[in-house]
């Protein structure tokens, strides 16, 4: 698959290249490109489902869209990336939110080409509930041991090595994972596959076969709630839900050897220099750079290129354009790193591929 190298930085990035398309400075969240759709004229209803990772952004943008397009209705239900992709293939929704890609074997289930529209990126936090430990450092190998089931108490030697100054209790570790098909699980396990290749043995995917004795919960909010209510628990949770549940979050050692907190500037740093494929997919996991947060995950809205009627096309294009412009201004306020203008422009240009 051909690729286009795009600097996915939220800060301005100056590039030098003989290709004029690659030399422009890039500023994340720049929504100077005006919307082209007359939002006030839109009517009808479209429904979406899928990623709980992007739910906070979807709900905030939908509220703003409702004011700009009062005669139109957009609904989004968080059901997990796997469920969203299945709903889209069955055409029970007009769009799906996903943090994982459509597999080759899934493509035959769709009636037309699937288009990816990146909408943001955000840290996947490693959230924990451990009384007396206000700061926790974890390396990829240690995470692989915890979530793989070989590290079972908080005072394990591997955790102690990452935290030489902490007073770690002998409390049993309760691992909490997603029980539904999840793009968050996909990205978390892809990270472990990359960063802890010698330690992680469970593979990656929207679902994996977790060791017995671990606890599952549906959606990011469910994992957050279970971690919050369980002493000694640890789980992987998107930043928005971790913040909403007031969870403690670990600093994760990146590929440069630095322990980094799951904050938006660190997610933006992870995006810098990522390679954007022609289909607008990219992978910032375990990115290089001293300031990069290593478990930074992208999230997309996916749609089918062929729609049943022009009314659906118009409303779908109007909402996606709003999400890619005004939505980028909202993203940092609810726990997401906005996309740079260059990526937004490529996504906006792709709207023309949606047809009745």
Explained architecture:
With 356 residues, this protein is of the alpha/beta class. The protein has helices spanning 55-68, 81-89, 104-107, 140-148, 157-162, 183-195, 219-229, 239-244, 264-271, 310-324, 326-330, 341-350, and strands at residues 3-5, 44-50, 72-78, 95-98, 114-128, 137-138, 174-178, 215-217, 233-238, 248-249, 251-253, 259-260, 275-277, 296-304. Strands 2, 3, 4, 5, 7, 8, 9, 10 and 14 form a 9-stranded mixed beta sheet that branches. β7 (174-178), α6 and β8 form a beta-alpha-beta unit. The model is unreliable at 1-27 and 29-33 (pLDDT under 50).
* Rg: 20 Å
Report the sheet-strand fraction: 15-25%
| Amino-to-carboxy terminus distance | 27 Å
Here the CATH topology of the domain at 124-271 equals D-Maltodextrin-Binding Protein, domain 2
Helix residue percentage: 25-40%
Tally of alpha and pi helices: 12
Molecular shape: elongated
């Amino acid at each position: 698959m051909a690729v286009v190298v795009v600097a996915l930085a939220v800060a301005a990035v100056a590039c030098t290249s003989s290709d004029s398309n690659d030399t422009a400075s890039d500023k994340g969240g720049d929504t100077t490109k005006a919307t082209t759709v007359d939002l006030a004229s839109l009517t009808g209803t479209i429904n979406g489902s899928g990623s709980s990772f992007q739910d906070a952004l979807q709900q905030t943008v939908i509220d703003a869209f409702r004011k700009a397009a009062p005669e139109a209705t957009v609904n989004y239900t968080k059901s997990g990336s796997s469920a969203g992709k299945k709903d889209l293939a069955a055409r029970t929704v007009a769009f799906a939110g996903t943090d994982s890609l459509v597999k080759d074997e899934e493509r035959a289930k769709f009636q037309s080409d699937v288009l990816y529209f990146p909408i943001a990126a955000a840290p996947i936090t490693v959230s924990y509930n451990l009384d007396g430990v206000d700061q926790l450092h974890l390396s990829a190998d240690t995470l692989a041991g915890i979530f793989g089931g070989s590290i079972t108490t908080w005072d394990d030697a591997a955790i102690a090595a990452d935290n030489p100054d902490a007073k770690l209790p002998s409390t049993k570790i309760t691992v909490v994972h997603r029980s539904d098909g999840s793009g968050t699980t996909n990205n978390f396990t892809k990270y472990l596959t990359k960063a802890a290749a010698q330690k992680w043995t469970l593979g990656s995917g929207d679902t994996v076969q977790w060791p017995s004795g671990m606890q599952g919960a549906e959606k990011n909010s469910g994992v957050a709630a279970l971690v919050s209510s369980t002493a000694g628990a640890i789980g992987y949770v998107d930043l928005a839900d971790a913040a909403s549940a007031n969870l403690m979050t670990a600093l994760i050692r990146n590929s440069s050897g630095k322990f980094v907190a799951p904050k938006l500037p660190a997610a933006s740093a992870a995006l810098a220099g990522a390679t954007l494929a022609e289909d607008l997919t990219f992978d910032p996991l375990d990115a290089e750079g001293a300031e990069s947060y290593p478990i930074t995950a992208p999230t997309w809205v996916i749609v089918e290129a062929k729609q049943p009627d022009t009314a659906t096309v118009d409303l779908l294009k109007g909402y996606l354009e709003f999400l890619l412009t005004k939505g980028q201004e909202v993203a940092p306020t609810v726990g997401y790193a906005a996309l740079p203008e260059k990526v937004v422009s490529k996504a906006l240009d792709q709207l023309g591929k949606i047809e009745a």
